[in-house]
Write the C-alpha cells for this entry.
Amino acid sequence: MTEPSIQPVVRVAGLSKLVPNGDATLAILQDIELAVMPGEAVAVVGASGSGKSTLLGLLAGLDLPTAGSVHLAGVDLFSLDEDGRAALRKRLVGFVFQSFQLLAPLTALENVMLPLELAERDDAEAQARAMLARVGLGDRLRHYPKLLSGGEQQRVALARAFVVEPKVLFADEPTGNLDADTGAAIIDLLFELNAERGATLVLVTHDEMVARRCTRQIRLAGGRIVNGAR
C-alpha cells in the first residue's frame, strides 16, 4: 500500500495584494507561490516595505487578497466568511506580534486563559498557569500588562500563543520592541517552545541571525519572492 504523501500545512497560489495609490495602483504582493510543510520553521525576510507583514496577515486570513488563494491545513481560507476564518484561526493558529497585543484590563493569567476559555476548555486556568510557569512567569500571574516589562509581556504573549497547541504559529517581528539582550532571550524561548510543541513556525524578521535559525528563509523584494519558495 502506498503511504499518503505529507501535504503542506500552508499552501499559497497566485497570491496578490493591490491597493489604490492616488491615480495608480500599488502592488504590495504579486503572484506569491509558496508551500510550508508541517514542522518547518520558515523565516520571511526582506527590506522594509517588501510586503512581509502583509504576507503574514494574508496567510492567517487577517486580510483579504486581491487575487489568489491560501489553504491552511487543507482549508481554503478565502472560501470562508470572516466568522469562518476566525473559527479556523481559533482552532489551528497562534500569534505573536511585535506590539504584544495583550489586553490591558486582564492579568497575565487571564490573558493566557482567554483563548482556552473561548475554546470552552474546562482546564483553562490550570493550563494557563502551567504555561506561564514554563515561560518563567509563575510568580507574575496576577500582574497586569502595565506592571510587566516588555520582555515579560512578550513572554505572556508566547504563553498565550502556545497554550492552545497551535498547528501553525505566526510571529511578526516578535523582538521588534525589545532591547538586544531581551530579544535574544525571547527568540531562544520561542524556538524552545516551538520544538517542544511541534508547531509549524512562520516568522517575519529583519534580523538575519534569527532568520538563520529557521529551517528555511523566504526573501521578499518588491512584493515578490526572490528566494526560498518551493
